[in-house]
């Protein structure tokens, strides 16, 4: 059996009691097979990015150790989103739950439907702040230390709850 890989999952919600959606999702991620949550970030209230005419988000990150492949982990996360009633409509629009793989070890993957590291994580404070809660020395492949990325983008619009 292969050793577990450290990965980070970003969580976000701005519909149907976002704090409860995110808290419930932490438990559902921990229940994925061959996966355990090793750290949970604080929750953050964040301003919407892109499509601005929507409620603020609650964002967080979970650091996990998993023996699932990146694709298996993604499939598990998509199933959790579906159980939360995730509907894909407006890009960057309102959602009950959004789960993204931000990091999977030091892997760089670009396949149809699967991009790791998340292609915009390095430029989004709402991902970087909770990422640093769970993995203070995280490196984003091709972009460098997450701490340096956050220093570049700043914390405007991000409030720790």
Layout: helices, strands, pairs:
Elements: E1 5-13, H1 18-30, E2 35-40, E3 44-46, E4 57-66, H2 70-83, E5 98-104, E6 109-111, E7 114-116, H3 125-134, E8 139-140, E9 144-145, H4 146-153, E10 158-160
Antiparallel strand pairs: 1-4, 1-5, 2-4, 3-4, 3-10, 6-7, 8-9
In short:
With 161 residues, the chain is of the alpha+beta class.
Q: What proportion of the residues form beta strands (DSSP E)? A: 25-35%
How many beta-strand segments?
10
In CATH terms, the superfamily is 7,8-Dihydro-6-hydroxymethylpterin-pyrophosphokinase HPPK
CATH topology: Alpha-Beta Plaits
> Helix count?
4
- Helix/strand-derived class? alpha+beta
How far apart are the termini? 39 Å
- Strand and helix order: EHEEEHEEEHEEHE
The CATH architecture? 2-Layer Sandwich
| Overall 3D form | globular
Biggest sheet statistics? 6 strands, antiparallel
Question: Notable features of this structure?
Answer:
161 residues; alpha+beta; Alpha-Beta Plaits; six-stranded antiparallel beta sheet; globular
């Amino acid at each position: 059996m292969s050793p577990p890989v450290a990965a980070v999952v970003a969580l976000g919600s701005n519909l149907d009691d976002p704090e409860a959606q995110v808290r419930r999702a932490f438990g559902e991620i921990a229940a994925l097979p061959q996966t355990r949550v090793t750290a949970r970030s604080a929750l953050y209230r964040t301003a919407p990015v892109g499509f601005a005419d929507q409620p603020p988000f609650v964002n967080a990150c979970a650091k996990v150790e998993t023996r699932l492949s990146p694709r298996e982990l993604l499939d598990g996360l998509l199933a959790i989103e579906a159980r939360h009633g995730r509907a894909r409509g407006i890009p960057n629009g309102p959602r009950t739950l959004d789960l993204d793989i931000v990091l999977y070890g030091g892997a760089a993957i670009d396949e149809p439907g699967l991009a790791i590291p998340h292609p915009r994580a390095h430029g989004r404070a709402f991902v970087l702040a909770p990422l640093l809660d769970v993995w203070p020395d995280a490196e984003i492949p091709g972009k460098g230390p997450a701490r340096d990325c956050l220093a570049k983008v700043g914390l405007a619009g991000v409030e720790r709850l």
